[in-house]
Amino acid sequence: MREFKVAIIGGSGLYRQSFIENYKEFTTDTRYGKVSLKTGTYQDKTVYFLPRHGDSHNVPPHLVNYRANIAALKTLDVDAIIATAAVGTMRREMVPGTRVIVDQCIDFTRQRPLTFYEGQEGFVVHTDFSEPYCNEVRSSILKAGRSLDQAMIDGGCYICTEGPRFETPAEIKMFKDWGADVVGMTSIPEAILAREAGLCYATIALPTNYAAGLNNGLLTQEEVLAAMEKDRPQLEELLKASITEIKPGSSCSCKEAGKYYPRENQ
Ligand code: HPA
Q1: pLDDT tens digits, residue range 225-236?
Q2: What is the CATH number of domain 5-261?
Q3: 141 CA to middle of ligand 1, Å?
Q4: d(Cα 229, Cα 149) in Å, to the nearest integer?
Q5: Ranges of each domain in the chain
Q6: Distance 77 CA to ligand 1 centre (A)
């Protein structure tokens, strides 16, 4: 039987996974640049781990090489990607400590390469983005979290800002009016590229703070990192249970959405 491969893209505060056995580090080359990964096994699955901001949190969200990361995971032929993302919350019910398994997103980025498709195949490609996050991977994470009694929220809208600054209270008020629930700086273009590559991808949004204007006082990166650090043991439990839960699926539209993924990337 073909091995089942799960990739974890770790956001702020998540740089390695102690539960991975047969642990190895390697670097792979893509058309977009080099990517450093960690790999190993968990139960009977191959796991790849990719710390989005680098091993020592030195790559800011607007400079992450998202295309290289997703192209590398596509070449490795992963079956599912679970991303984690620290976010600010705009909803009282999405308190810090809950896990929002987002199902929609809004792109408020300004200057990132947003696509793999640059006409290289000789035709224009418009990718369906009605389901920005894979329903099967989302369901597995929700089931895993509920079995652990973690506070799981099924669905939510992630708005992605350019960063690296935090938002103004006026922006947050507008985002809330638009229907966004949580705000972060990384899901775009990561979710777009995963969809263009036909990969099953879902994000665990982790509210670390109330967004600007809804909190008390100034926002600091230290509070975001401290909240992530505090949550890390429970988050690792959730990741382990999610990896166990994820099965080869067929009811999502991810593969079909990525059918034109450029051959020259492979
Ligand atoms: N805004 C944007 N990104 C974030 C926040 C926030 O309030 N908290 C954690 N990541």
Answers
A1: 999 999 999 999
A2: 3.40.50.1580
A3: 22
A4: 20
A5: 5-261
A6: 31
